[in-house]
Each structure stands twice: as C-alpha cells, then as structure tokens.
Task: structure prediction
Amino acid sequence: MSELNLILFGPPGAGKGTQAARLQEDFRLPYVATGDILRAAVKEGTELGQKAKGFMDAGALVPDELLIDLVVDRIGAEDARDGFILDGFPRTRAQADALAAAFEGLGRRITAVLLFDVPDEELIRRISGRRVSVKTGRVYHVESDPPKHEGRCDVDGSRLVQRDDDKPEVVKQRLDVYHDQTEPLVSYYDERGLLRRIDGTRSPTEVHDHVRAVLATLRLEETL
Ligand code: AP5
Result:
C-alpha cells in the first residue's frame, strides 16, 4: 500500500486510543489525536486550550474552526507523507468536508475509516473505569486492564487519574453528542466506500487482529 491514511472512528470509549497505540507500533506512522492535542493545550494554557476547555468539560464539541486548520496542516506535514493515524477527527460534517477538500488538494486519499462498534452500556462501563497516567498518557481500566500497583503507571510509577470529562454527568452528554453530531458520518463514509466496521466489544487483542486483517485485505485489493 503506497500510503496508509487511517481514520479511527467511533463513540467515546470505543477503544480508538487503545488500538492506536498498537497500530503505531505496527506501522510507525504519526498519530494525530485531536482529544490529546486539546488536552495538552488545556494543560499548557495556550490560547487553543483556553478556548476549548469549557466545551470539553461540558462534554460538547469544540468549534470546528479551532480544529480544522490544525488537523489539515498536521496531516500535510512532511513526516505524514507515508500516512498517519487520525483519531477523534472528523466529528462533524463540516470537518469531514474540510478533510475531503484537503485530501483532494493534496492528491491523496483516505485508505479506510475504521468504525469501532460498541453499545452504550459497555462504553459507560469502560469510560467510568478508565484511568490515565499523568506523565506517560498510558491508558488503563480498573477492571479489564488494571496497573500492577493500584493508582500507579506500570511504565514509570506516575500517578493515574480519571479524565475530567470521564465523570458520569459528562459521559452521558458526550454519548448524546456522538449520536447526534458524529454518528451521521458513518453513512457519509459508507456511501464513499471507505467505512470498515470492527466489532469493538471483543478483547483489545482480538480487535487489533481484526483491524490487521482488514488492512491486509485492503492491501491485497490494491494489488489486484
Ligand atoms: P477524545 O479524547 O477524542 O475522546 P473520545 O472520542 O470521547 O474518545 P475516548 O478517548 O473517550 O475513547 P477511546 O475510543 O480512545 O477509548 P480508549 O481506547 O481510551 O475527545 C475528548 C473531547 O475533546 C471531546 O469530548 C471534545 O470536547 C473534544 N474534541 C476532540 N476532538 C474533537 C473534534 N474533532 N471536534 C470537536 N471537538 C473535539 O478506551 C476506553 C477504556 O476502555 C480504557 O479504559 C481501555 O482500557 C478500555 N478498553 C479499550 N478497548 C477495550 C476492549 N476491547 N475491551 C475492554 N476494554 C477496553
């Protein structure tokens, strides 16, 4: 496959970040996660972070204009010439259209949009048990993927915390926003022949195997 331009798509807690870590190891491609970019901006107190914080804390989407140019510039950068793994973008029709226009301008195409399908009850279970290292960003789950020592990251012993937007009152709002504003993009990408559905309820390893099988099939189709 000449380029691997992947979009990881799905509701909050579907396992996009978990799979992204594995795919990064597989393909060594730049990982562009808008949620991570925004959280870093909030932590550093940049102008973007100050504008985004209120929306994120409320479980709402950050306005399109704060993200579109940033993402388009990032995936057009030299180190993303062989591809990238995009997580959390697009989330609105305006973002999807802007991405499509940018790709057309660059003469590139999206390889696949991987949709991780997980029902809401399981998403709530996953999000409420998620813990994240303040230093390494490594993601855990208190039941299904606990750290060796409670509250401490396996990598460097740093503190594990719950994301502000993982509190129960915000999670419900994030799911509603996903169903209202982002889920319509499933048919948008399906109509364009780019959507690949992945059963996200399986174990992380089984999900990863499925993704690799999907990508291998795409590679095969490209050579035919
Ligand atoms: P963002 O950071 O993108 O959050 P999200 O889409 O809500 O996704 P999550 O990070 O919650 O979940 P994930 O799918 O990565 O799951 P994970 O692998 O961690 O966005 C945050 C906010 O930023 C948004 O609300 C919005 O305000 C703003 N924003 C970002 N992008 C934007 C955009 N484009 N436009 C506007 N606003 C934007 O897994 C979750 C848990 O489940 C973990 O504990 C994990 O261990 C566990 N787990 C994972 N896989 C499995 C499995 N297979 N089985 C069992 N457990 C599993």
Summary: DSSP finds nine helices and eight strands in the chain.
